[in-house]
Amino acid sequence: MSAPRILLLDEASPSLRALAATLELEGFRVRQTAEPDEALSAIRAGECEVVLSEVHLAAQAVLAEVRASNSAPPVIVFDDFASLGGPSQALREGAFDALARPISDEEVLRAVRRALQSHALRLENERLKHELDGRATFGELFSVDPRMRRIFETLAAVADSRATLLLSGESGTGKTQLAHAVHKRSARARGPFVEVNCGALPSNLLESELFGHVRGAFTGAVKDRLGKFEQAAGGTILLDEIGTASPELQLKLLRVLEEGRFERVGDTRTRNVDARVITATNVDLEQEVAAGRFRADLFYRIHVVAVEVPPLRARLGDVAQLAEQFLTRFARRHGREVRELSSAARQRLCAHAWPGNVRELENAIERAVLISQGARLEPGDLFPERAAGSAGAHGTQPGFEGWQAGPPDELKLALEGPERWLLLRALERHAGNRSAAARTLGINRTTLFNKMRKYALLSFPVRT
Ligand SMILES: Nc1ncnc2c1ncn2[C@@H]1O[C@H](COP(=O)(O)OP(=O)(O)OP(=O)(O)O)[C@@H](O)[C@H]1O
Ligand SMILES: [Mg+2]
Predict the structure, then answer these.
(1) Of 64, 45, 74, whose CA–CA distance to 140 is shortest?
(2) Which residues line ligand 1 (CB under 6 A)?
(3) Which residues 6+ apart lie within 8 Å of 341 measured at CB?
(4) What confidence tier does 390 reach under pLDDT thresholds 50, 70, 90?
(5) What domains sit in the chain, N to C, each tagged with a CATH number?
(6) Which helix (H) or strand (E) holds 376?
(7) Angle between helices 409-429 and 434-441 (to 10 degrees)
(8) ω into 102 cis (within 30 of 0)
(9) How would you label 1-11 residue by residue, b for 16+ Cβ within 10 Å and e otherwise?
């Protein structure tokens, strides 16, 4: 095992550098940043095992993320003095430990070791608990579907080998996350995880993206460039949408996979690949082979271990379970009171076809959490724009008599939903600043005020 990684979130200073040096001497790997956003993406990408953070920087973003994810690393906060509320507030908000400066080396090391141990225990507990629930988990993914469980088992079994994998499935079914989880379970876990979308670039650019180039290799190649294969050295490279690779590129990839070698574009020196290759596709590669668009030899090379991830609509059990998990996560992340799905909402979720699969479900729940007002998510929160359309489509539009008694609740909600959602988005974007939100929406402040009152949004917090 290589050294555990510690993320230091604080402004650079002589004392911080001393702390980093101490930790490195003890065999930890240390990365420092003063940017909460950078820390957040490192945490989400699983690039650290412990976070040591200045208390205010932690409070800005990192703690919400830690509360929302079971596998997020523990956060230890420190503060210059035992400021009122600071560290203890941080503990209530999910920090693992709080240290008041000046902190001795001993104290930091003890706290870090305790955090590492407790985190390992928590992960193990989670795993056992899920096993009892009949849920299978794999990295950040989970499922109650037996086919998904088999996929997790297969991937767990081959994670630590160098075998090339092929993950196929519709967009949003979790292929990238599966690949990431395989990487995290392998001996290369602490190396880089690099993702390349083969469909996003024209073929000549893609070649230099993957293999790099030397200066002067083509017009515009003003300096040497490291390709993704070299960036992924010691780690894993995910070649997404491999089915779109051009014939020339397919040939080069075949060589990489067969011989483990490549050249940078315009270079004569042959280099060795030191990356585990995972491929993903959302088209049926066998059909592409049959149609002559994909090399059969390359297909067999990457088909060594192949899994086909079923679309979300084919695993109904997962719809409700995933929806609940996302609900909890986003309610925590956005500090909302909503706790559960109403049974009508659950039914609507199960009836939806989810063409965008889990990604679509995740987005729908996040949006619903943001616009919901009660403790329970209702169908109108989940499908605000659809509810309006579906009233006609399902023939439930009220007759003239219906209108005299006022529009039915569902229709009223459907019509209000989008406006409320737009208001919320504008307020969120401007941290509650009403003038700025009104400008974004193209209305004046009085109109905004009236609309906020109408939708019970006057208590929307202003963050400074
Ligand atoms: N079983 C699952 N449990 C929890 N989250 C999931 C699951 N499956 C997918 N997700 C989430 O859904 C989102 C989409 O997943 P991902 O990006 O891995 O899909 P993909 O198959 O790679 O899509 P694309 O083909 O568009 O690249 C991610 O946020 C991922 O975390
Ligand atoms: Mg993907």
Answers:
(1) 45
(2) 140-143, 169, 171-177, 240, 282, 322, 358-359, 362
(3) 320, 323, 324, 327, 349, 376, 377
(4) very low
(5) 5-128 (3.40.50.2300), 139-308 (3.40.50.300)
(6) strand 376-377
(7) 120
(8) yes
(9) eeebbbbbbbe
pLDDT in tens, 253-282: 999 999 999 999 999 999 999 999 999 999
54 with 35: CB under 8 angstroms?
no
Q: Which residue from 148, 151, 166, 176 has its CB within 8 A of the most atoms of ligand 1, so it is best to mutate?
A: 176
H/E element, 259: helix 247-259
d(CA 283, CA 240): 11
CA distances (Å), origin 7, targets 50, 57, 116, 311: 6, 13, 13, 36
If you count DSSP H runs as helices and E runs as strands, how many of each does the chain have, helices first?
22, 18
**CA 174 – ligand 2 centroid, Å:** 7
Q: Output the CA 210–ligand 2 centroid distance in Å.
A: 17
Determine the residue type at 224.
D
Residue type, 138: F
In whole angstroms, give the CA distance from residue 345 to residue 356.
19
pTM of the model: 0.66
- Residue 47 confidence (pLDDT) above 90: no
- For residue 447, the 8-state DSSP code is H
Give the separation between CA 211 and CA 346, rounded to whole angstroms.
47
Q: What is the CA radius of gyration of the chain?
A: 26
Both tokens assigned to 81: 């003095």
Q: How far is the CA of 11 from the centre of ligand 2 (A)?
A: 34
CB 212 within 8 A of CB 226: yes
Q: What amino acid is encoded at 454 in this protein? A: K
